[in-house]
Amino acid sequence: MSLFKKIFSKEKKETLDKGLEKSKATFFGKLSKAVAGKAKVDDEVLDNLEEVLVTSDVGVNTTLKIIERIEERVARDKYMGTDELNQILREEIAGLLSETHVGEAEEFSVPHDKKPYVVMVVGVNGVGKTTTIGKLAHQFKNQGLKVTLGAADTFRAAAIDQLQVWADRVGVPIIKQKMGSDPASVAFDTLSSAVAENADVVLVDTAGRLHNKVNLMNELSKVKRVMQKVVPDAPHDVLLVLDGSTGQNAFEQAKQFTKATEVTSLAVTKLDGTAKGGVVIGISDQFQIPVKYIGVGEGLEDLQVFNKYEFVDSFFNI
Q1: For residue range 190-235, what is the model confidence (pLDDT) as tens digits?
Q2: Domain limits at 84?
Q3: Confidence class of residue 6 from pLDDT cuts 50, 70 and 90?
Q4: Hey, is 143 helix, strand or coil?
Q5: 88 plus 225 within the same structural domain
Q6: I want to staple 167 with a disulfide (CB 3.0 to 4.6 A). Which of 78, 146, 174, 226 is the partner?
Q7: Among 67, 100, 133, residue at a domain's last position
Q8: Three-state SS for 261?
Q9: Total domain count for the chain?
Q10: Do 205 and 295 have their domain in common?
Q11: Environment class of residue 248 by beta-carbon count within 10 Å: exposed (0-12), middle (13-18) or buried (19+)?
């Protein structure tokens, strides 16, 4: 299949291969059991494959879609050997991802016609939200872009402190107020500063959970409205960060946040420490929101721009 002939950056690809090792080993261990003793793909193999995909955190709806596509191919080709299953799965999953990821970015970049380009980052505590912001700031700065951080998760002192550590580490300015301040006020100050300083990119951290009675949806809507007083079309991207190691729980988080606000892209973190890498496929398909970044390690360079072909190639390359 020609789409897999793309030349990948060797270093990036090695990191991705390593990051998906656990997911791949678990998946192919289950797959080999599913087709053991079978020469051709029949109903029993498809039933077993369905179980493999569901237990690999691909998700029920996406699994049924994949099985349906393979059934159509079996019906069309009359005979399909189990030795072909790996390649067929690879093609069908790449096809599914292609439906969501149209014209995806190859590198860490932002549109030139939006300045500053404002990213509002959302997600529950503990998913790696602040770390993702820090790594994004590092990557954008490496591209020669001027970055400003906004600490609008004012409900946890730890969130403000952690973002300050990242700002110092990466060497970018941070706008913050004391804990308990109005998040919208921090967002306003951040964008005002970014405009005054001619920044290229603004990354605004937000609360994943509120300690008072304020509804999260209302809070995020208010932050957006106040941003628009400074930059009329902000935010340009609402990035939801999900912890890939939580598997099906990540689906639930995605469901809650897509109800609370309009999410335009996803970052799936902690894929290196888990066998649940299949969750990327299911979340991308079910929510029809592009996965923009994936985290495959602890290092600054281990946050990668998600590339569907590289991902599928790494996942199925045995």
Answers
A1: 999 999 999 999 999 998 775 555 688 888 999 999 999 999 999 9
A2: 9-100
A3: very low
A4: coil
A5: no
A6: 174
A7: 100
A8: coil
A9: 2
A10: yes
A11: middle
